[in-house]
Write a structure and sequence with these properties.
The chain is mainly α. The radius of gyration is 21 Å and the shape is flat. Helix 1 packs antiparallel against helix 2 and helix 3 packs across helix 4.
Length: 174
């Protein structure tokens, strides 16, 4: 079950959405559509396969980018269709702590990408996931590392073994 959206207590406001949420949804959807369109355009330079049974290397990103565009269009339609909720009074502002969490998440992402070159995908991603879970409020000393290692191992297995995609090993382990 989900929580009712802000402003959803009054009659007729069951699906109402605050104006800031509507604007954020529209901006995010437009940015993601632009990214997906550029991904589709970039696949034009991928080499073509000479085999009739091979779908080529461009098929996978085109399918995912197309799905992203469709989902963004659904988000835009639902956002525009939802009524705008009246301004809520007494609602707590995000505050400096909320912005600091977002900034720390962005910094952790950059650090993870940089660390992969040295310690590899596995170590960097497991630590990154534990940090992100803590920033998002999951602070279990037992479950954070278990989930981080488990999800990292699952993604590594799918990409390395099933899809044969080489992942960074790290210069410290080469």
């Amino acid at each position: 079950m989900s929580n009712a959206p802000a402003g959803g207590e009054g009659p007729g406001f069951g699906n109402a959405m605050p104006l800031t949420t509507k604007i954020a949804n529209l901006v995010i959807a437009v940015v993601l559509i632009a990214i997906a369109a550029s991904a589709i355009a970039a696949t034009g330079n991928f080499p073509k396969s000479m085999l009739a049974a091979d779908v080529g290397s461009a098929r996978f990103p085109i399918i995912h980018a197309g799905a992203l565009i469709v989902l963004c269009l659904i988000l835009i339609a639902n956002t525009l269709r939802a009524p705008t909720a009246p301004a809520a009074t007494g609602e707590a502002p995000v505050g400096i702590a909320g912005y600091a969490g977002v900034a720390l998440g962005m910094l952790a992402t950059a650090a993870c990408i940089a660390a992969m070159e040295y310690v590899g995908y596995g170590v960097a991603t497991a630590v990154y996931m534990a940090v992100i879970m803590a920033l998002m409020g999951q602070r279990s000393p037992l479950w954070n590392p278990v989930l981080a290692v488990g999800v990292t191992a699952l993604v590594y297995g799918v990409f390395h073994y099933a899809l044969q995609v080489p992942l960074p090993v790290g210069s410290l382990f080469e």
